[in-house]
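[scheduler] slot 2 assigned
[scheduler] job type: sequence-to-structure, two independent chains
[scheduler] chain ordering preserved from manifest
[runner] begin chain α
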Amino acid sequence: MKFACSGFCTRPWRAAIAVMVAFAVPIEVSDASWLSDMFKNKPETARAHARATPRKRLAAAKHVASPKHNVKLASLGPPDVSASTLKTGSSLCDPLKFRIVVDVGHTVESDGAMSARNVPEFTFNLRLARKIEADLKAAGYPATRLIVTEGRARPSLFKRVATAKALHADLFLSIHHDSVPNKLLEDWEFEGKKSHFSDRFSGYSVYVSHDNPQFRASLSFAEMIGKQMKAKGLKYAEQYSQPIMGHYRHPLLDKENGVYSYDELVVLRKSEMPAVLLEAGSIINRDEELKMNSPERQDMISGAVVAAAKDFCPAYLGPM
């Protein structure tokens, strides 16, 4: 999560986004990387979409081959699912076919937040997303897709959403790592270079949007991830419910498991399938940054996602 304008801050992008959608072009499918989340400045008023709608599978795959674009796909594996989701009754959960899109937050060019030791968030996101993808596949979900994007943040705003739709994704999970607003940063020097940190806050957080057409399913999966993270001894970032966060403050939907609503986040509100964003931990906190770099912490987080997937698929579609 980046708190500069290319990441978590909100701006009145509506007009620009409308133009981008109107001139959207096909996306190339191949092997590799993917991008960052931006938010529209929209008041949290109407909640007309808060009710769940039946799960809709896309009628047919759209042609997605255009050498002009930089969206690439990396592998197949399974999606992540949650327990309180409503069953559609139209199909059964088949892990071999259930498809999750694991989205790598940010890009090389727009690399998100900077860690306390000057490592871009994108580096953390890519590593963890690859771990999750591999573990989902190993757990029996071979339809998982890892997507990574190239380019600047604004032009790539809707690419992930379009790619997930073209892939007939059953579930969308965007992987990020957290920071804090600039006003909360402190200065320090690391390896002879001026750096910034904030040891005041730490923890994971999970986000959903009321504007997602499958909000209840999104919330169910988010709750299951949070529950699994908590079961592994991890704590969520409580600061996003506090006034000190200013306009980065968000409604806390699940105070036990750390699930927040962030209705303006494009990849959550525009995705047609259940969609969740996971802030895996804080990389601006010096101690937690070291933990996020450890294989042990990466195993814990990936394990939580896999466990949530195993619960969500049968709850969403019904047991085999």
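[runner] end chain α
[runner] begin chain β
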Amino acid sequence: MMSDLSAAELDALLAKAGELKKKMKSGQELTSLKGKVVGLLFEKPSTRTRTGFEVATLRLGGHSLYLSANELQLSRGEPVKDTARILGGYLDMIVARVYAQDTVDQLAKYSGVPVVNALSDLEHPTQIIADFFTIMEAKGKLKGLKLAYIGDGDNVCNSLVMGSAIEGMNIALACPRTYHPNEAILEQAQAVAKTTGSTIEVTDDPTKAAYDADVVYTDVWVSMGEEAEKERRLRAFKGYQVNTALLEVAKPDVSVMHCLPAHRGLEITDDVIEGPRSIVWKQGENKLYGAAAVLEWLAGLD
């Protein structure tokens, strides 16, 4: 979870992502994961997270093993803690992309090896590491910027709120009233924000949130596992689209972000995601370097 990181640790991870990006782009041979095997336990499909962690492991000199939950005994009812104990005896690290945060917690408790939350129903911390690195590349800083998040108060939103508080970045959230971020995380982030000078605003007005923003961020309205709620969600999020009109109230040099995959014409328009203010593709590429930073950092904790 984002709250597991101190400001110094988060800053170190962002710096590490930049360092590794330069080294990987130059073709430098890296060996920080030499002899290490990283297991990717995924209950959900993935493009960027899976590929990012697999390629990062390979480029750091290690080996990855993809473990689809559907092909494990988990699919037949084996307790997570039993699977965790066995995997911990085989692997050096586990990267988990799962439905429930409790699964990540049990893997961490019983495996005896480092476990990375690569997405749960509660948070998506590795996404935010890549996001903040991308903002640093675009804006040169985090502290004092205004990030506007428009849409569902989901796992990405929860991690963005906590990460922004840790870094002293102001964040304004525009979410329908029944789709606000997790209350416990919001309260914790507000307490952290008081120590870092960050402000956290929650509203149901996208225009208010986007006003004078340095960065405007959105995510899908219907996440994996929420397909049964699609029609209700589409009605609730009508008016929460990131489009050219909304960007008019933000700063002239506003950057637009989306963690992907994007449903063009719903949460974001095609002209915006493909436009000059979009840094979405850099954001997607940087999932690789964020993943590499996390893996190298954990390898150094052994």
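[runner] end chain β
[qc] chain β: The radius of gyration is 19 Å.
[scheduler] slot 2 released
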